[in-house]
Write a structure and sequence with these properties.
- This protein has 172 residues and is an alpha+beta fold.
- It has a single domain, classed as Gcn5-related N-acetyltransferase (GNAT) (Aminopeptidase).
- The chain is 35% helix and 22% strand.
- It is built from six helices and five strands; from the N terminus they run βααβββαβααα.
- The radius of gyration is 17 Å and the shape is globular.
- The structure holds coenzyme A (COA).
- Coenzyme A binds next to β4, α3 and α4.
- Coenzyme A (COA) binds next to β4, α3 and α4.
- Keywords: Acyltransferase, Transferase.
- Pfam families: Acetyltransf_1.
């Protein structure tokens, strides 16, 4: 099986949206999904875009049983840590079940690590659900450290109405 890892293009949006939906279903979070191909196009390809995406693409003659050539993706964006400087944040890594265990996930991680170094990042961060032990194992093999266990860091969100409330109280 041959495949390439390449940056996304606008022609991939529908295929990536399908994978995002699969990933959300895998995480039992389909009801939380609000992105659309149009939003991805606007946020990813118009000015001020702050993130990138890599896709894993098969040649057409090796497409999946359900007709896909884009069979994996990973989003990434620059972030900053006051202790270490630039860091790259990975958002979502997904490979369709039919093509797992063939090195595609590792290839996506290899390429994102390369991007991290090219952008001067000292670290590559991402989150993983506690119940997703296969992915935890996969990341551990690549050298990932679980900082929730090691250092007791917890991921916090401020969402929706709370963001609005905070912003409304900003000093003029
Ligand atoms: C995690 C994931 C991206 C890995 O992609 P992949 O293409 O299967 O990974 P690779 O083929 O590069 O596998 C690398 C190694 O991890 C192991 N591995 C990968 N996924 C595994 C799984 N689900 N269960 C058990 N082992 C797995 C492989 O056996 C392989 O081990 P080896 O190098 O000793 O042979 C893929 O399994 C996936 O999409 N899972 C569902 C979504 C998910 O959990 N994403 C991560 C969210 S944080």
């Amino acid at each position: 099986m041959s495949y390439i890892i390449r940056p996304w293009a606008t022609g991939d949006l529908k295929a990536i949206m399908r994978l995002i939906r699969d990933s959300a279903a895998f995480h039992k979070a389909l009801d939380q999904l609000t992105t659309t191909p149009e939003l991805l196009r606007k946020d990813g390809f118009e000015k001020d875009s702050t993130f990138g995406c890599l896709v894993a693409e098969l040649p057409p003659e090796q497409k999946s049983k359900d007709g896909r050539t884009i069979v994996g993706y990973q989003f990434h964006y620059l972030s900053y840590c006051t202790w270490y400087g630039r860091i790259l944040f990975g958002e979502d890594l997904y490979v369709v079940p039919e093509f797992r265990g063939k090195g595609i996930g590792t290839s996506l991680m290899n390429k994102v690590a390369k991007i991290a170094l090219e952008k001067g990042c000292s670290e590559f961060r991402f989150i993983c659900a506690r119940w997703n032990q296969p992915a935890m194992d996969f990341y551990a093999k690549l050298g990932a450290v679980n900082v929730t266990i090691q250092d007791h860091w917890h991921l916090c969100h401020i969402e929706g109405a709370h963001v609005q409330k905070l912003a409304q109280q900003a000093r003029k």
